[in-house]
Specification:
single chain, 168 residues, mainly alpha
């Protein structure tokens, strides 16, 4: 295996810098303690700390001989870029449209596109059929609607809705 310390160092630095950037962003979140003495910045700070720690370990690993126990790349299938594109489109469209479509429809759209990407990456021939699209749409609605209602009605957390009634 050729020396991979350069690319591995870049990956480690990317993880480390992402963790530090998340920590910097989490500093801007209010730390006023809520229920149980935990503020809203606790979880973002915890995730940022864990990611920074992982990045530091990866950097140490990369600089002290490279990532160990890695298999040979020849065994791996090639990346499925179209699946990545479908999943990325679902996430980005949800982020861009959630204020306009509301939580339920935005998350349903994200689910449908992500599942299409996974189906296509797995090589399922039924991925493009109308029945599969309909099944994915109904499944997405059946997942996102109860989540929305639970957060808005039972936990009193405001999520973007399509109407002012609070039910969609």
């Amino acid at each position: 295996m050729s020396d991979q310390r350069g690319p591995q160092t870049l990956v480690a630095l990317g993880v480390l810098l992402t963790g530090l950037a998340m920590g910097w962003g989490a500093l801007g979140i209010s730390s006023d303690a809520g229920y149980g003495g935990v503020g809203p910045n606790f979880l973002p700070m915890l995730c940022a700390g864990a990611l920074t720690l992982c990045g530091a370990f990866l950097l140490w690993e990369a600089r002290s001989g490279g990532f160990r126990d890695m298999g040979d790349d020849a065994d791996l299938p090639p990346p499925n870029w179209s699946g990545l594109a479908w999943i990325s489109a679902g996430l980005l469209l949800n982020a861009a449209l959630i204020e306009h479509l509301g939580f339920i429809l935005g998350c349903t759209l994200c689910y449908v596109l992500a599942v299409q990407g996974l189906r296509r990456a797995a090589g399922q021939p039924v991925a493009g059929s109308a029945r599969t699209w309909a099944t994915d749409l109904v499944t997405g609605l059946l997942i996102s609607a109860p989540v929305y209602w639970m957060f808005t009605k039972f936990l009193a957390i405001n999520l973007p809705g399509l109407t002012d009634t609070g039910w969609i």
